[in-house]
Specification:
It contains 5 helices and 5 strands. The protein has 163 residues and is an alpha/beta fold. A 5-stranded parallel sheet has the order 4-3-2-1-5, sandwiched between helices. The chain starts with 27 loop residues before the first strand and ends with a helix.
């Protein structure tokens, strides 16, 4: 019988935590946005920022064109993409327009749009209408895209209170 002896990793007081810098390849991501409140769209967009910003900064210095990012939208947040609601959701729309200029594709489910009585011309110019959110999500996953589903929660206490 062969016995293996496992030694626990022992850290001295002089050891410091380290920052990991994996060699990330050009990401291919499809986001599934299905929010219960349109006001959560602003927080959901931070999920895109949290992917893009670290990769465009040092040590990665990736150009946005090196990232393939799609956002499939089929919840109440659809209303944020409609031209007639621009004044109410201006900040969110301009953030999405900025991301679209960097190559992020915003795709709205036509089935959901029909539920809201919206047509293609109701949406901003950077929006693409797709037949179904589910077929779109399946399609991109079958083509090697990672699926990210933002979890947007309402924070009821400040960061200072919970630190």
């Amino acid at each position: 019988m062969i016995m293996a002896v496992l030694h626990p990793l022992v850290l001295s007081a002089d050891d410091e935590p380290m920052i990991s810098q994996p060699n990330y390849d050009s990401p291919k991501v499809v986001y599934d946005f299905f929010l219960d409140e349109p006001e959560k769209m602003s927080a959901a967009l931070f999920w895109i920022r949290s992917l893009m910003n670290p990769l465009t900064e040092s040590p990665y210095d990736m150009a946005p064109e090196m990232m393939d990012i799609k956002v499939v939208i089929h919840g109440t947040e659809i209303v944020t993409l409609v031209k007639k609601n621009y004044a109410k959701y201006k900040d969110v729309v301009e953030r999405m327009r900025y991301y679209a200029a960097l190559g992020v594709e915003f795709k709205v489910c036509n089935l959901a749009a029909n539920d809201y009585d919206y047509e293609l011309n109701d949406f901003h110019e950077f929006v693409e209408l797709v037949p179904s959110a589910f077929t779109e999500l399946v399609h991109w996953q079958q083509h090697g895209y990672a699926l990210i589903i933002p979890q947007v929660h309402i924070r009821r206490r400040s960061l200072e209170e919970i630190r």
